[in-house]
Amino acid sequence: KAVVYWMRMEDMRTSDNKALALASGTAQTQGLPLIVLFALTSQEYKIHGRSVRRIDFVLRNLAMLKSEFAALHIPLYIHTHSGRRRDLPEKLLKLLESWNVTQLFANMEYEVDELRRDLTVLEKGRDRTHKVKPTFVHDRCVVEPGMVANKQGKAYSVYTPWSKAWLGIIQSRPDLFDPYPDPDPNDPSIKEHELYGTLFDSPVPTSLEGFICEDAAHMNTIWPAGTKAAMSFLVRFLQTKARSSQCSMDTLPPAVEKAKPKPKAQTRETRLGAYANQRDRADLDSSSRLSPYLSAGVISARECIRHAIAFQGKRDVRYVDLKRDDGAGMWMSEVGWRDFYNHVMAAYPRVSMGRPFQEKYADVRWEVDPALFEAWKQGKTGVPIVDAAMRMLNERGWMHNRLRMITAMYLTKDLMLDWRLGEQYFMSQLIDGDLASNNGGWQWSASTGVDPQPYFRVFNPYTQSEKADPSGDLIRRFVPELKGLSGKAIHDPFSHLDKAAFKKLKYPEPIVDHKLARERVMRRYKNPGDD
Ligand code: FAD
User: Is 223 known to be catalytic?
Assistant: First the structure.
């Protein structure tokens, strides 16, 4: 007999992991061996438009986890499923039967297909003679979906009241932040399994068919795998200063081995301390850059918040104010958006099916213009901040939140192209691609989502540029054609340079006129279905 923890691509860590803690606790009390199972499902990844970078990140994390689990004397077995995705539950149950598994533990995934898959596992498991008892638990969010409800018991669709209720729950239950116990490598009650030899020797694939990552080496340098790397990004955010004079997007976190948070009195100069005022500055590298690690669950959101609170000298979460002008509260509120979008996805499955949350905007008429879409993708729109951001996405697989908002708003409102095209393109490039947050961000920008930016508030990309990149460093770093410019010209060279000087730059003219585009979007949203 054996107990299995089924690890998913959103909970790739050995510590502070609820399903793993439950599985190892059960193995311990029942004196059974513990096996960790991971299923690589290429068809699923393709259907969900997962980027090759994200899959490569999964594989790199799996390689590290293999040895981390081995050090805990637990085998990690990777099942590569190349067939139809609907056959996966049956395949896995057969595998579990062959191992004589009695109990299966997994953290829940809230995407509609994944929920259906887990329900099939539950149903099929129940119908068989060899019974595997599956247990699915909540771990992805700080507060589990369904717990934050309004007075009528319904899910919220607006962030501010939701966040008040969310914080209320957290403050009345500081235990929500308690870490789950790590598996104990010296536990004598955990037994050897006859298959352990084979399972320990099973290989971790270095690539997956259909997901060849051409810039894998570069991604490995800027987004190293593993919990230690995640911790080093966290330490960098909590302890180091955001540079104020030059674009520091190329700095890497401190050496991974040194990364251990050491709480001490914080000044407002650390990234965390300055976050309340600087979080919208895309040129200062002012945010944590933890999203790839949080999306893959390489570190838990609980752990991040625990450290942030300690660093700001707060005794515990009861002393945090989400609106106060200090970094910890503001940062916690941003991590809250991650919970919020997961709660929305769990409560309103239509958002993971390509539908707008606000059904009244389902008939907005979008332009069909592959050339405009291509210019946006390649960062050749003639709007410097949009181009810098898109080139950054293509080069790094990541963008600052403000840049995501600017580029998404530009695609949907200035180019009037369908938000789903942008959502898919982001997903195909991002290393932190996550359905709930990506869809939430796109629908916010397109004004079709929960708590969206109202349609009549259209970002002016040039004034946004002056706010997000006042120094122009970010644009100069990613748009080398403009590296000789400064002042107003860096944000809008077409309007601020004479014709000859502009021509010399070999930089495109703006592909649309912002003022006209703004009028068009007003018409189309006011009367969806009309021209
Ligand atoms: P920090 O500012 O340090 O925030 C800490 C963490 O809080 C983040 O790592 C993230 O987990 C969470 N967070 C912060 N802001 C948000 C937000 N607005 N929504 C949800 N979670 C948030 N985030 C993803 O993780 N994956 C995506 O695929 C994704 N797509 C997006 C698409 C659009 C159009 C927009 C507008 C936003 C998207 N976001 C996405 C949210 C946000 O932009 C990123 O989480 C953030 O930029 C990551 O940088 P950071 O880790 O330095 O964030």
Answer: no
Q: How many angstroms does the Cα of residue 488 sit away from the middle of ligand 1?
A: 29
Q: Which of 37, 49, 112, 113 is nearest to 81 (CA)?
A: 37
Q: Is 1-139 assigned to CATH 3.90.550.10?
A: no
The catalytic position among 99, 223, 376, 419 is: 419
Write out the two tokens for 141. 């969010």
Distance of CA 336 to the CA centre of its chain: 13
Looking at domain 223-347, which of 1.25.40.80, 1.10.287.370, 3.40.50.1820, 1.10.10.10 is its CATH number? 1.25.40.80
ipTM score of complex:
0.99
Q: Which residue has the tokens 């949080």?
A: 294
Burial (CB count <10 Å: 0-12, 13-18, 19+), residue 504 = exposed
pLDDT tens for each residue of the chain, 531 residues long: 999 999 999 999 999 999 999 999 999 999 999 999 999 999 999 999 999 999 999 999 999 999 999 999 999 999 999 889 899 999 999 999 999 999 999 999 999 999 999 999 999 888 877 789 999 999 999 999 999 999 899 999 899 999 999 999 998 988 888 899 999 877 777 778 888 888 988 999 999 988 999 999 999 999 999 999 999 999 888 887 766 545 555 666 655 555 666 655 555 578 888 888 888 999 888 899 999 999 999 999 999 988 888 877 666 777 777 666 678 888 999 999 999 999 999 999 998 888 999 988 888 999 999 999 999 999 999 999 999 999 999 999 999 999 999 999 999 999 999 999 999 999 999 999 999 999 999 999 999 988 777 888 899 999 999 999 999 999 999 999 999 999 999 999 999 999 999 999 999 999 999 999 999 999 999 887 766
% helix / strand / coil in the chain, to the nearest 5?
Answer: 50, 10, 40
> Is 419 a residue of the active site?
yes
Does domain 359-526 match CATH 1.10.238.10? no
CATH 3.40.50.620 domain locations along the chain: 1-139
**Catalytic choice (97, 100, 220, 366):** 366
Give the closest residue (by CA) to ligand 1 atom 42.
401
Nearest to 311 by CA among 263, 246, 381: 263
Amino acid at 413: K
